[in-house]
Amino acid sequence: MEKRMNDILSVIKPVEDDRNKQLRAIQEIVNSIYFVGALRGATVKPFGSFASNLYAKSGDLDVSVELSTDSNFHTSKEKKQDVLRELMTALEFRGVATYMHFIPTARVPVLQYVSKLFGISCDISINNYPGRIKSRILYWVNTIDERFGDVVLLVKEWARSQNVNDPKNGTLNSYSLSLLVLFHFQTCEPSILPPMKEIYDVNIAGDITGMALYNERHLDEVCMANIAKFRRQNAGKRNESSLLQLITTFFLKFSHLDSYSSDVNIHLHGADQANPGQPTLDGQILLLVCRRSI
Q1: Which of 133, 148, 255, 286 satisfies CB 3.0 to 4.6 Å to 176 for a cystine?
Q2: Cα 42 to chain center, whole Å?
Q3: Is the four-CA dihedral 184, 187, 190, 196 of positive or negative sign?
Q4: Which residues form the Poly(A) RNA polymerase mitochondrial-like central palm domain (predicted)?
Q5: Contact between 136 and 219 (Cβ < 8 Å)
Q6: What span, in angstroms and rounded, lies between the C-alpha atoms of 140 and 228?
């Protein structure tokens, strides 16, 4: 069984060519923004699974286009919608996109399309600092133990095969699944990952809601220092569970979620893209707030 899981990972894990295709798809967007007057001076920043290094070969690409005139988080939804409409026109003009779908009424307006050249599904949003912050923190979590990334990929592949990894249809997104794996690794005995406050001991809520400017260098410095401290304090205490044991206990743990009711509060935030007033699992953040993880 362990060999079978490693065989699956060998198929779904990206290689250098896959990474280069993602980077070239990003460059397509960079080249397209020059055709949009409102985007002069804007920068293109990937986030999501690609930025966290938790992506599979068939993974989508999430991109935030950051407006040069906005030094903070306060960009109106209407402005984001207008800019995305112009960008959609530019992508169509250059002939680099197919299956385009603009969702202006989503909680975060998004332009979705598939790159004609690379076949990569792309989601573009404007000034998506919350997405970048969450992705960067997961990137650092992923550096602590390589088994975390492997289990995330296996769980995402399982979810995809069971049709429960598609926020467009009201099921869990990849970020939510990554947080479930994070919680599992925090609650193993002995724990593999520390509580989040020991990785990024800054006001995450303030960063995500835009009450503070996003400083990626500062985030990196904080995470690096705290992870180094965690490793020093836990030297010689490594959890030696195999990949098979970790994936087995993951499903056992969440098949008995009721037993964690005193330790876990699950908060779902978001809205159906087609019906913005209706809360669903679509495009949302699944926050596992538990005594062990905060």
Answers
A1: 286
A2: 22
A3: positive
A4: 2-139
A5: yes
A6: 11
Percentage of the chain lying above the pLDDT 70 cut: 82
Give the pLDDT band of residue 171 (cuts 50, 70, 90). Answer: confident
One-letter identity of residue 206:
G
**Alpha-carbon span 136 to 204, nearest angstrom:** 12
Asked if 138 contacts 151 with a C-beta cutoff of 8 angstroms, the reply is: no
Cβ-count burial 27-53 (b if 16+ within 10 Å, e if not)? ebbeebbeebeebeebebbbbbbbbbe
User: How many Å apart are CA 150 and CA 265, to the nearest integer?
Assistant: 26
Q: How far is residue 89's CA from residue 169's CA, in Å, rounded to a whole number?
A: 27
pTM (whole model) above 0.70 = yes
DSSP 132: H
* Percent of all residues in the chain with a pLDDT value above 90, rounded to a whole number: 65
Q: Coil, strand, or helix at residue 48? A: coil
Q: How far is the CA of 30 from the CAs of 39, 64, 95, 111, 216, in angstroms? A: 10, 11, 14, 15, 20
Residue 286: beta bridge partners? 268
* Cα gap 28→38, rounded to integer Å: 17
More confident site: 74 or 116: 116
Spatial distance between the Cα atoms of 189 and 200, rounded to a whole number of angstroms? 22
Sheet holding 43-47, edge to edge: 43-47, 61-66, 121-126, 110-115, 97-103
